[in-house]
Each structure stands twice: as structure tokens, then as C-alpha cells.
Amino acid sequence: DQQVKQNSPSLSVQEGRISILNCDYTNSMFDYFLWYKKYPAEGPTFLISISSIKDKNEDGRFTVFLNKSAKHLSLHIVPSQPGDSAVYFCAASTSGTYKYIFGTGTRLKVLA
Amino acid sequence: DAGITQSPRHKVTETGTPVTLRCHQTENHRYMYWYRQDPGHGLRLIHYSYGVKDTDKGEVSDGYSVSRSKTEDFLLTLESATSSQTSVYFCAIGRNDQETQYFGPGTRLLVL
User: Fold this and answer.
1) At residue A72, what are phi and psi to the nearest 5 degrees?
2) CA dihedral angle for residue A39, residue A43, residue A49, residue A52, rounded to 10 degrees
3) Does position A22 have pLDDT exceeding 80, yes or no?
4) pLDDT value at position B67?
5) Given CB atoms, is B39 within the 8 Å cutoff of chain A?
6) Quick check: B31 and A98 CB within 8 A?
7) Would the CB atoms of A45 and B103 count as touching at under 8 Å?
8) pLDDT (tens digit per residue) in B57-85
9) Burial code of B57-93, b = ≥16 C-beta within 10 A, e = fewer?
10) B89 and chain A: CB distance < 8 Å anywhere?
11) Is residue B2's pLDDT more than 80?
12) Nearest CA in chain B to A47
């Protein structure tokens, strides 16, 4: 049972436009969420997080939105740059469980 | 970058042999994790540790064991390697159970 789902395996966006990556979860006990970016042959790199007490968190070009009633979060990248081309993972956690559940990832390609 | 190293970075082994992967951190973080990354599955948690000698299973722990005798080291052992354990293995660390996890560079393991 996949508790965290990223239903789009890949996404292509023109440079300068907005990239929107989506993530759905099934466990209503999840209360903290992370987004990671991963380049080939490297470990995942933390991008941005959000707690369930918020519905939005922003850091530069990256904004994460959380819709708890829909059990959905999204990562917006504006403007998209070619260097953003990578695989993006969302992850969810319940406090006190010590662990995150990761989605399967979305490969973003930003076209110059 | 967080001070996390993994060794070896690449390994080829034969079915049935034991293999040990090492994760070393210089951050004095309490939590350490082992994940595997496979196409179509994203990152899946194998085992994690919430302190010296305190470990627990993740979602794909069969065929793996771990040990943590020091804060800085977390070892992952494949007791008898199988071809299904061919994967890229990532170690991660965190200060508390919902803190951002920082990942190592990964170990690419091929079991023939």
C-alpha cells in the first residue's frame, strides 16, 4: 500500500515558466512533509518542508502548498531553470515515528 | 553539506556472499537511516536507528540487518546477498525524528 504517491513520473516545462509537482498521501496522521531534489549519481538534497499546521511555505523560487482535507501537497517552482532538471521526491512523516515515507518521484525536465 | 560518507561507493558481489555497507557521520545526529532506491519504487526505508544500539525495521527490512555501536557509524549488512538486493543504497541522518534528513552520496551495489 503506497501511502505517499507521486502520480506523474515525469514533467517537462519551459524555462521561465512554473513547474508544479504533486504529491498525494493516504495517512491522515502524517503531520510533516519534505521535498527533496535528486540529481543522477548523487544523494537527495533537501528543498523545503511544511508542517500540517501551515498550508503554505515559501523559500525563494520554491513554494509548497498543503491541502490537508484533500491529503495533497504540491511544490511550485517559479521561474523554472534548466538546473532544476532532476527527480523530485516528496516525503511524509508522523511525529514520534522517527521515519519518513517517500513517494516514487517525479522527473522534471526544464527545457531551455 | 552535512558530513556524511558512505563506503564503499561501488561494489560488485556474488549471490550468497555477505556484504556490509558503512555510513559515517560527523554531525553527532541522533537518527540514522538506510534506504534503497529502485526504479518505480522511489526511496524505501530498510532500517533506522534512533540512538546507539537502538534500531528498528523499515518497510523493506527482510534480508538486511543493521548495527550502531557508535553515534557516528551505522552499518547495513546483507547477510546473504541476492540479485534482488541490487540497488543504490542511501544513508541519511537527522537531529530529531521530524527534522530534515540529510543524505549521503549513495552506494551502488550489484549482486551477480
Assistant:
1) -140, 135
2) 110
3) yes
4) 97
5) no
6) yes
7) yes
8) 999 999 999 999 999 999 999 999 999 99
9) ebebbeebbbebeeebebbbebeebeeebbbbbbbbb
10) no
11) no
12) B100
- Give the model's pLDDT for residue B6: 97
Q: Do B45 and A89 touch (CB under 8 A)?
A: no
Q: Tell me whether residues A104 and B100 touch, CB distance under 8 A.
A: no
| Residue of B54, B52, B55, B2 whose CA lies nearest to B27 | B2
pLDDT (0 to 100) of residue B100: 86
Smallest CA–CA separation between B80 and chain A, in Å? 26
Cα(B30)–Cα(A100) distance, integer angstroms? 15
pLDDT in tens, A44-83: 999 999 999 999 999 999 999 999 999 999 999 999 999 9
Does residue B1 carry a pLDDT above 60?
A: no
The nearest CA of chain A is from the CA of B99 a distance in Å of 9
Task: Examine the pLDDT at B98 and tell me if it is beyond 80.
Answer: no
Closest CA to B35 of B25, B23, B26, B27: B23
3-state secondary structure of A82: helix
C-beta separation of A48 from A62 below 8 A: yes
Q: Are β-strands A106-111 and B4-7 bridged in parallel, bridged antiparallel, or unpaired?
A: unpaired
Q: Which residues on chain A are in Cβ contact (under 8 Å) with B98?
A: 32, 93, 95
Judge whether B5 is closer than 8 Å to chain A, CB to CB: no
